[in-house]
Amino acid sequence: MNGCLLNPDGALGGNPLFAFIYNAAAHVLPCWLSHIVAGLVIMLILINAVLLGAAIVSWGERRLLGRFQNRIGPNRWGPFGALQPIADLVKLITKEDIIPYGADRLAFTAVPVIMVAAALLATAVLPFAKDVALVDLNVGVLFVLAVSSLTSIAIFTAGWASNNRYALFGAGRAVAVLLSYEVPVVLSLLGVVLVAGSMSLGDIVTAQAVPFFLVQPLAFFVFVAGMSAELNRTPFDVAEAESEIIAGYHTEYSGIKFALIQAAEFGGVLVVSGLIATLFLAGWAGPVAGWLGWLWFLIKTFIGIFLFVWIRSTYPRLRLDQIMAVCWKFLMPLSMINLAAVVLEVFFLRDANGILTTADLWIMAGINTVLAAVSIAFFGRLIREKVRAGLPVAPASQPLARGVTTIQAN
Amino acid sequence: MTIRTEPMTVNVGPQHPSTHGVFRVRITFDGEDIVEVEPVLGYLHRGTEKLAEERNYVQIVTLTDRLDYTSSMINNQAYCLAVEQLLGIEPPRRGKYLRTLAAELQRIASHLIAVGFFVQELGAFGTPLMYTFRSRERILDLFEMLCGARVTVSYMRPGGVFADAPADFWPALEQFLEDFEPELAELENLLLNNEILLARTRGVSPLPADVAVNCSVSGPVLRASGINWDWRKMAPYDAYDEVEFEVPIGRNGDNYDRFWVRMQEVHQSLRIVRQCVAQIEPGPARLELPLVLRAEPGAEAYGRVEASKGELGFFLISDGGVSPYRCKIRSPSLINLTITEHLLIGWKLADMIVSLGSIDINMGEVDR
């Protein structure tokens, strides 16, 4: 020790990993340098964790999709094809990196970086295990929302800078979808914050004596739906609808830039699944949470990923106006109902100190589950009715055609 | 202040993931709404009609395979019917049944592709397409047993089929029919009542019956508009007058009805295949004919079938030589494309792809 002391009130001061690296570095380095070194080491770990995670997600998604579709999926390179992402990456890096004629070079090049950065930044506040988060910001939820909406700017820039009409279509669609879905997502998170009484993700995990997907099923539903729209995943993937607008905003991207955009998308799935796990599935909480917290967190994250893959492999895509309708006529009312219900419940159930007991949470879970079933059925019916009326019926016994007399009926 | 907007013209195709090959259409968009549509054809023109004038009557069968390469059997059938009419011959009974059987299997395969890509264009990520291809592969395997080829089959000949089915074909066919039933049920379970599919296709791009008739469309597209028009019923060829089946007819002519009609036709085709298996009798499968066929000078014939995409016709004129003087192909895909403007204008970009998919064009047939 050469007398360097970490300020325990600093943003990173409470992080045990940071403190450990800082103290180790301080043996040989001056204080200010070991501060930087510790920061860089943590950055390296986080970035690699997310990018490696994105690689695993991409492999897992392809394997799962293969299973869903009666085929095998990548299985050549490594055990069960697990090294496939590396092969993909090598292929993409060695491809020619094209910037189209007439593109805005600076903006075009900046987009992949911004997208990866947005995916990475959100991990800064995720609690991976008990007391293991880079920073447990007291405005963690707000930070995550702010960072995740960076993506919409990047997507719009990509569409505009590409000088490609399909990309422009994709960008226009993406901005419309992303901006609309921010609203129900934020509203659904307000309920979570209300019950937890804190915006810090760590506190939200601790507050989940009963996991919040039981306490607020509506918020869970709205959040998952809204987030699959924010991630541009089926059935809300209009921004990169392959069959309509080639690849949407990243039509013109190739080589390493394409790889980065893909990494950002799969990283986004990882981060959002981590968020779902943290906010609604009680994050690292579980048996022996002190030692096995990371395991529970991972399992819950992969439940979220599996959910996204499952939805993707099953549903067709909605049209843009229908997506807007789902957002404003379906998810919005649901999130409002959830918020109103949670506000009332918290108001009546909390004790003098504003604390909710586990029993209170179970009462809320009961009320909200019934409320969720009723309101989803009600608003779902409102949307469905128009679609269902007058379906054709099988088998097809039909009268003869008008004006056709030469038909020989058997 | 008002925002200045202007229409945007986009070339969709010939290189686009979902224009069924090399179809190109210049579309003017106002935002996402379609204002103007101009199909541009000809990227797959191979001069089939001209090539047919240089080949003898049997060789032309191989050219017909490459028209609509997803339903080669039916193309063979239409051409062979035309030649038989030209020569005034009739294939033996077993040949007729084998043709009907093969054509109906091909119809199932072709409709499966149509449905699979239709749903793929709706944005389902591969799953329905893989389901349909799983069954289609089995049908192609059966074709391989029949004639050694899977896609460009050239199975039929003027006067019957190229060869009788091998002995192990029949158990394989039975096995396929047995396996296909649950697979089809699985597919229908996934698609027919799918909420998003209904929302995307019901009432979208309706084709009124009068427009359909005026544009001379045929096949499932016409039947979806509510018109009972099926050449298998109206002028039965081969063994169609000896089998029972019904003609599924839509009501609104929208994208869903076109899709629904195809799904129902798969059921009817299965029925026909079953009846063919039950009714087929031993005997020769092919008429004994001279190696090189010649028709009377000036003879004309028009052979038509109800192909998977509509009325497919071959019009042959003979000048007495070994090859036809003229071979005109009435291809359903090309003529069904005349409704493009009716279907697309006023709808959105996302609907455009789906509507094109619901016509089920095949560029090999459109450009010939």
Question: What would you say this structure looks like, in words?
Answer:
The complex is a heterodimer of chains A (410) and B (368). With 410 residues, chain A is mostly helical. Chain A has 15 helices and no strands. Chain A has helices at 16-26, 31-68, 84-94, 105-122, 140-148, 150-161, 165-196, 201-206, 212-215, 217-230, 242-245, 255-280, 289-314, 320-349, 358-388. In chain A, helix 6 runs antiparallel to helix 7, helix 7 packs parallel to helix 14 and helix 12 crosses helix 13. The radius of gyration of chain A is 25 Å and the shape is globular. Chain A starts with 15 loop residues before the first helix and ends in a 22-residue tail after the last helix. Chain B is an alpha+beta fold. Helix content of chain B is 47%, strand content 12%. Chain B has 15 helices and 8 strands. Chain B has helices at residues 48-52, 60-65, 72-87, 93-121, 127-147, 169-191, 195-201, 209-214, 220-224, 231-234, 255-279, 332-336, 340-344, 349-359, 363-367, and strands at 8-12, 24-30, 33-40, 156-157, 160-161, 300-307, 310-317, 326-330. In chain B, the strands form 3 sheets. A 3-stranded antiparallel beta sheet of chain B has the order 1-2-3. A 3-stranded antiparallel beta sheet of chain B has the order 6-7-8. In chain B, helix 4 runs antiparallel to helix 14 (349-359). The radius of gyration of chain B is 21 Å and the shape is globular. Chains A and B meet through helix 7, helix 11, helix 13, helix 14 and helix 15 of A and helix 4, helix 5, helix 7, helix 11 and helix 14 of B.
